Amino acid sequence: MHRSCTWSVYLEVADELANVLRHVGDTLPRQLVHTDANESNVLVDESDTQILGIIDFGEMNVGHRAMDVAHAMAYQMAFSRGDRMEPAVCILKGYLSVNPLLPTEIDVLPVMIMGRMAQSIVLGAYSAAQDPSNESYIMDGKDGMWAVVQHIREVGPGKMADMLKAAVQSENENVES
To answer: Aminoglycoside phosphotransferase domain location, by residue (predicted)?
Structure first.
């Protein structure tokens, strides 16, 4: 497992995500989602300013549209070298510039982000145990992912959701009522 963490944290994150989905999952809009918009699957131009395309559709499924946004936010937060909220807000603003989200969807983003990061760390640890010769490649970036989980737990998922809403509503972004 990740050297800075215990199983109990991952189990708590899994329980929290399951609880959120149990309570509001049926009310969240569903659509075709990519669910793997990470730094390896988003193609950008040479100046790193324009998205040219998205690849790797192996995890595509019909799921909660908020989960797709959360996964993209999670990976950008994990690889951020500064403020972890800044990339999350940028991803959310970008998404809202073309598609709306319900306030309830924004409420669940922090827990979904933690869930994706915990899942990635646990699956990475399992894969590294299966192929120890490839551990450094498999576990690359997991410290940043763990930092995202810690950050959201410290701030609190509810407070983070409020911060996200404030950031996008200050610019009258596309949040449904």
So the answer is: 15-95
From residue 147, alpha-carbon distances to 2, 114, 130, 153, 168 in Å are 11, 10, 25, 10, 24
Between helix 85-96 and helix 157-169 the angle, nearest 10°, is: 50
User: Is 0.85 topped by the overall pTM?
Assistant: no
- Looking only at the bridges linking them, the beta strands covering 61-64 and 30-33 are antiparallel
Asked if the model's pLDDT at residue 33 lies above 80, the reply is no
pLDDT at 36: 63
Structure token pair of residue 143: 């410290």
Contact 125, 83 (CB under 8 A): no
The tens digit of pLDDT for each residue in 43-98 reads 677 776 766 666 556 676 678 899 989 999 998 999 888 888 999 999 999 999 98
What is the C-alpha to C-alpha distance for residues 147 and 163, in angstroms, rounded to an integer?
18
Q: Measure the CA–CA gap between 128 and 35, rounded to whole angstroms.
A: 22
